[in-house]
Specification:
mainly alpha
């Protein structure tokens, strides 16, 4: 049963990694977004918050038991 859990975590971290490789698929324009920052900064922040959430859940599952 633990191997299925391990595979789930591997898949989650691979998804986060692939989301961070957006420069391979998306041509970000230099035009500012609503707040005046480049549009890619929102994506950057989203991916990092997602990574922190996944890593927190991973740590809670494996090191808090």
């Amino acid at each position: 049963m633990k191997s299925k859990n391990g595979i789930l975590w591997i898949i989650l971290f691979i998804v986060v990694f692939l989301l961070s490789q957006d420069y391979l698929l998306i041509n970000w324009e230099g035009s500012p977004s609503i707040l005046g920052f480049p549009a890619w900064i929102g994506w950057f922040a989203f991916v990092h918050v997602l990574f922190i959430a996944v890593f927190y859940l991973f740590a809670k599952k494996y090191w808090n038991e």
